[in-house]
Amino acid sequence: MKNIRNVLFYSITIGIFSALLYFFIRQGTFLEKAGQITQKQTTTSSWEQFTDTFGHNIHHPLATLLLQIVTIIIVARLFGWVCKAIGQPTVIGEIAAGIFLGPSVLGMFYPEVSALIFPANSLGNLQFLSQVGLILFMFIIGMELDLNVLKTKAQEAIVISHASIILPFALGVGLALYMYTDFAPENISFLSFSLFIGIALSITAFPVLARIVQERGLSRTRLGMMVITCAATDDITAWCILAAVIAIVKAGEFVSAIYTILLAAGYVIVMLKVVKPLLKRIGDHYAYREGLTKPVVAVFFLMLLLSSYCTEIIGIHALFGAFMAGVIMPVNQRFRNIFIEKVEDVSLVLLLPLFFVFTGLRTQIGLLNDPHLWWVTGLIIAAAVTGKFIGSTVAARFVKQSWRDSLIIGSLMNTRGLMELVVLNIGYDIGVLSPEIFAMMVIMALATTCMTGPALDLIDKFLPGPKWDDIHPVHEPSRFSVLIAFASPQGGRKMLRLADKLVSKQPDEQQITALHLSPSSYLNQVNTEEYQYETFRPINEEAHELNTTFTSLFKPSQSIEHDIIEIANEGDFDMLMIGIGRSVFEGTFLGKILGFTSKFVSRERLFDTITGKEKLFHSDVFDERTTHIIRSVKVPVGILIEKNLEQVRNVFMPLFTPEDRRLLPFAERLSTVSGLRMTIMDPSQTVSQHAETGEALDALQEKSPENVTMLYENVLEKDFLQGQDLMVISLESWIKAVESHSVWLSNSPSVLIIRS
């Protein structure tokens, strides 16, 4: 009855007001001038009106900007994925994406497409939007700097960072002597040109360096803290020098720039002595997620914009103001982490790629059409690498760092990446850099950033660091050590519950290591500690309930499966346990057809395809990552398919083939657990007829007669399986069951698949 009333009311309301609208429009037509309307209708046809409107909409500035953003994000993500796959920072791919979309590639080979997506009159909008992204990014960089860390290592860091600035700066000024006559723009003094070349060679990319340190697992080490401190000190010093250089360039003479420098010094003093204490009081009061209401967030964003505005009108660029605003943010780590989360995704994913592509649109590699120009490019790269690498390495060695650590510091400080592009774009905007020099410098930024990873690999090869066993003592032979590698905290909680049953209950023989690898792109210098705490909190709670202990191992990673394999093989563990999703077809070739997954083919599989070891398409019962781990780890691997594993009391182990006798050591460990009932099934009785296996089964029953039950018939019925908490099965038997589409799989409990 209620539905009929609703329909009736809806129909009457729509009908009455539709009729009223028709009456109003009908009356309004009498007010029109018939002659003008007739003339408009007879001039063009309906189709022509539609095409004219559609063409106007396509070329509307907003539509053009949206098309540019969509294109930039897609291409930047694609190039970033390729660079990540070959072990390079994603920022390299994003810079390469900009060059690809610019006149060097797309504009050269497909000028019509380039003109459609990036018409010349639209670049102004793209530039201003990219500048907004840069302002937000520099704000984040300032927040990620921990000034307290700088104070603790200030002396060594200042020596290393300033040495890594002065040497390349001097080489850059010397190189300007060689380049000034041929490449300096008109009306630019040698002082301005040389100072800018010097600062361009002196910069270090703090964000890229920090990500590399995280990916290499150095962020918690003494070396990692040292190099982060050096890079932070370098950034602060370089930006202060850059502000002075910009003031000199804009003023024209050093004496005229003194007024600008004095204004900038006054601005810095006000920010540190007046604004910073005020923001600290606000941050301490609202240092929780619910406290950061819109008015509070508006205060901090207003401060950011005002700071950027002040430095822009002073004459030292808005980006310095954004950087300074981040530096003076409240030092409360929780507050900074919450605020970074609000800004980072929009800045890094949406707006920052616009800056890379805008840089690429400015980069005209085609201008370097003479061997002499490439010779000059080589000189720039050589001066940049020599100054930064040698300056940092020698200074690090002088402050009593080892040769290995000194070389690592030198390699990392030579990373330029995004920060170099920021400096270069400032130089291009104020007219110090010509298009040729700009292209050369962009190539130098790419080259010096690309060489960081291979340089670190060479150092590890010829000057290897301490082995795993030196850091983590090898356990006693009587111990059974389990490494659980988990993705989700709740999954790690279930794996710890199972691993606790496998290890001995004697405290001196118990050893469980919980490993969590996080994609390095998810982390920054501020949120790493809180992220680690939240990740391991459920596992710590479970360990407390089980009255057990474990060793936590947290590591940012660029290649999760590679790091799992390396840690499992080098750590001298007795077993690796990993977890996968519930669907046995997820990630497989059949799963791809059915739409379960859309992951890219892994680079390991691509390499194996090229070398003829494997087929390109994945046909295993596990996803590609799991299969790669299973094949590469030297110790036994347990793959847990978890289905509400709330307890481990009833465990079932089917033995289908004689090779399944390799599961018996695990059955023996489980059979000793108090309150755990172990059921071993041998449906064909071929396994128990094997002499050694039969003796082992008899010994197992004699040792734990109350915990172990033998079944010699096929009991894979729904009622039996639903009464079990866990099934332990060999990898070979599981594969056969999946490939034969065994009907009992759908009723199986949680499964631990063991590859012996």
Please tell me about this protein's structure.
- One of its GO terms (cellular component) is membrane.
- Residues 74-455 form the Cation/H+ exchanger transmembrane domain.
- The chain has 756 residues and is of the alpha/beta class.
- It folds into three domains: 117-462, Na+/H+ antiporter like fold, CATH 1.20.1530; 479-639, HUPs (Rossmann fold); 643-756, 3-Layer(aba) Sandwich (Rossmann fold), CATH 3.40.50.1370.
- Helix content is 65%, strand content 8%.
- The protein has 34 helices and ten strands.
- Strands 3-2-1-4-5-10-9-6-7-8 form a ten-stranded mixed beta sheet, sandwiched between helices.
- Mean pLDDT is 81; it is low at 468-478, 582-607 and 609-619.
Quick recap:
Residues 74-455 form the Cation/H+ exchanger transmembrane domain. The protein is of the alpha/beta class.
Question: What are the salient characteristics of this protein?
Answer:
756 residues; alpha/beta; Na+/H+ antiporter like fold; Rossmann fold; 3 domains; ten-stranded mixed β-sheet; 34 helices; 65% helix; Cation/H_exchanger_TM; transport; membrane
Biggest beta-sheet profile: 10 strands, mixed
Helix content: 55-70%
What is the total domain count? 3
Q: Give the overall pLDDT as a whole number.
A: 81
Number of strands: 10
- Give the CATH level 1 class of the largest domain: Mainly Alpha
**Reported CATH architecture of the largest domain:** Up-down Bundle
What does the radius of gyration come to? 33 Å
Strand order of the largest sheet: 3-2-1-4-5-10-9-6-7-8
Instruction: Using the coordinates shown, work out and report the CATH topology of the largest domain.
Output: Na+/H+ antiporter like fold
Derived from helix and strand composition plus strand pairing, the structural class reads alpha/beta
Shape: globular
Residue stretches low in confidence (pLDDT < 50, at least 5 long) are: 468-478, 582-607, 609-619
SS strand fraction: 5-15%
Q: How widely separated are the two ends?
A: 67 Å
What is the helix tally?
Answer: 34
Domain Cation/H+ exchanger transmembrane: 74-455
Transmembrane segments: 7-25, 58-79, 91-110, 122-145, 157-178, 190-213, 225-248, 254-275, 287-307, 313-331, 343-361, 373-395
GO molecular function: antiporter activity
Pfam families: Na_H_Exchanger (PF00999)
